[in-house]
């Protein structure tokens, strides 16, 4: 009796594991937005059709593929919510267009994904944020119009997912934002906005772990990639950045952001005509925090204003005497290795660390940066830095 019961249980287990496997092997069920009433005429709002397709796909107990065929789709602010019952693919073959008027957005998200596991976003299509009007409208400094402009693609609480082979142009705010994500691979993506478009970060990462970014082509108006509080285990490789503000860690140490930034590796990047190359930036004054284990390696600079920079005195709205190198963010274990090319300003290497918690274990290895403009050659300036340098050092003078 006992043995036949356990035999039955074993059978049930076998059955369950077979059906589980079958749903993994089966091809995905396709949910085309066209079957949910999308018009793809470039002007009718297709948001509801997309949301209905998502809801059905998300409920499907197996692999789902949301299909967005060739065509142009006007979408208002939409958020695709999980958790879902199986792996989700969001296949964008067409063009998604945002409304131009930023006052139509009630959230700072244009297209959002939340609480989804095993998501793949791909398809060769692109997102057009239609930012031109919003950038002019959001004139925070002169006319005090400071709208929370929508980020084109927001990922919140997303795990085990891939974002690949898509493009984004003219985002109103950042192109892509990751918050509280884990195990995300981002590759083969093109992000484009004009050099003078405000706040159009390429990829902005916060509170996220295990993110791999590769094969990126980014030309935008703010940081190509920025990593803030809580960014850990981030690997970035094969990135072209320009125009833009470079690849940046920070700004760190705002009073409400204390999570550490750790294990960031940036290798094989080219920066061209950018404001910064590779940068770590913290507020001064700041809350106490830690940024450690950071490597920038094999990076070519072409006409970059601040190719290698640590700035612990960041305080754009402080009075001129305000920044006094009193950041409490400890920066340690940072390596700049194999960094070469041209600087568009005389100071090619600038490491300005905190007087209170000096940078520790900073390494400069094989640096070769030229400045050909007036007042050359290039120089390096450091303060409050403990570290070493070896290999080629042009310009020299630090460490
Ligand atoms: C996501 O994938 C993992 C690993 O394959 C699996 O354990 C989990 O059940 C999947 N979740 C969904 C919602 O597909
Ligand atoms: C990107 O997507 C397009 C359109 O679906 C496809 O033809 C192309 O092969 C994809 N490229 C990669 C590298 O996956
Ligand atoms: C991301 O890529 C790494 C290998 O580079 C792989 O180990 C990991 O499983 C990938 N993650 C996802 C979500 O596909
Ligand atoms: C970086 O480029 C070198 C060749 O210059 C290559 O050997 C290495 O695999 C690349 N690393 C990554 C992470 O792409
Ligand atoms: C160098 O970069 C600046 C932007 O930082 C740009 O205005 C200038 O045209 C570039 N010079 C060359 C020679 O490309
Ligand atoms: C620092 O990075 C190295 C390799 O990049 C890794 O082996 C080590 O565990 C990291 N240290 C910490 C404290 O995470
Ligand atoms: C800094 O690196 C040393 C070894 O080089 C390691 O022992 C230490 O844990 C690292 N500290 C941090 C905070 O990553």
What does this structure look like?
With 399 residues, the protein is mainly beta. The protein has 4 helices and 28 strands. The mean pLDDT is 91. The chain has helices spanning 2-25, 47-59, 132-137, 140-143, and strands spanning 29-32, 41-45, 64-68, 72-74, 78-81, 88-92, 95-97, 109-114, 119-122, 126-128, 151-156, 159-169, 176-179, 182-192, 203-206, 209-219, 225-227, 232-241, 247-252, 261-272, 276-283, 289-304, 306-314, 329-343, 347-352, 359-371, 379-383, 385-394. The protein is elongated. The strands form 2 sheets. It has a 17-stranded parallel beta sheet that branches. It has 2 domains: 28-211, 3 Solenoid (Pectate Lyase C-like), CATH 2.160.20.10; 223-399, Pectate Lyase C-like (3 Solenoid). Bound molecules: 2-acetamido-2-deoxy-beta-D-glucopyranose (NAG) (7 copies). Residues 292-293, 332-333, 361 line the site of one 2-acetamido-2-deoxy-beta-D-glucopyranose (NAG). This is Exopolygalacturonase. The active site is at residue 245. It holds the Pfam family Glyco_hydro_28. InterPro entries: Glyco_hydro_28, PbH1, Pectin_lyas_fold, Pectin_lyase_fold/virulence. Its main location: secreted.
């Amino acid at each position: 009796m006992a043995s036949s019961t356990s035999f039955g249980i074993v059978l049930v287990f076998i059955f369950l594991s077979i059906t589980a496997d079958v749903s993994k092997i089966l091809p995905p069920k396709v949910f085309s937005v066209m079957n949910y009433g999308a018009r793809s005429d470039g002007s009718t709002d297709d948001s509801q059709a997309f949301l209905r397709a998502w809801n059905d796909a998300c409920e499907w107990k197996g692999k789902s593929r949301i299909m967005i065929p060739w065509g142009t789709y006007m979408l208002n602010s939409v958020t695709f919510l999980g958790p879902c019952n199986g792996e989700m693919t969001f296949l964008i073959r067409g063009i998604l267009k945002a409304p131009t008027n930023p006052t139509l957005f009630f959230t700072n998200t244009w297209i959002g994904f939340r609480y989804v596991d095993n998501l793949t976003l791909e398809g060769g299509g692109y997102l057009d944020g239609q930012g031109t009007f919003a950038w002019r409208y959001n004139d925070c400094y002169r006319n005090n119009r400071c709208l929370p402009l929508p980020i084109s693609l927001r990922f919140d609480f997303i795990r085990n997912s891939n974002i690949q082979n898509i493009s984004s142009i003219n985002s109103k705010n950042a192109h892509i934002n990751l918050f509280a994500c884990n195990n995300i691979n981002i590759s083969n993506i093109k992000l484009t906005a004009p050099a003078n478009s405000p706040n159009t970060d390429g990829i902005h990462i916060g509170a996220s772990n295990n993110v791999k970014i590769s094969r990126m082509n980014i030309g935008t108006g703010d940081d190509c990639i920025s990593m803030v509080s809580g960014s850990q285990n981030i690997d970035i490789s094969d990135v072209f950045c320009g125009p833009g503000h470079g690849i940046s860690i920070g700004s760190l140490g705002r009073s409400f952001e204390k999570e550490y930034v750790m294990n960031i590796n940036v290798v094989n990047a080219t920066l061209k005509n950018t404001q910064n190359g590779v940068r770590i930036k913290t507020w001064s004054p700041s809350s106490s925090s830690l940024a450690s284990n950071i490597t920038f390696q094999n990076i070519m600079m072409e006409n970059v204003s601040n190719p290698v920079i640590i700035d612990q005195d960041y305080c754009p709205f402080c009075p001129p005497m305000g920044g006094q190198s009193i950041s409490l963010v400890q920066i340690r274990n940072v390596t700049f290795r194999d960094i070469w090319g041209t600087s568009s300003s005389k100071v090619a290497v600038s490491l300005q660390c905190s007087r209170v918690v000096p940078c520790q274990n900073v390494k400069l290895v094989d640096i070769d940066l030229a400045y050909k403009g007036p007042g050359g050659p290039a120089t390096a300036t450091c303060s409050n830095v403990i570290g070493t340098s070896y290999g080629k050092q042009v310009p020299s003078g630090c460490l």
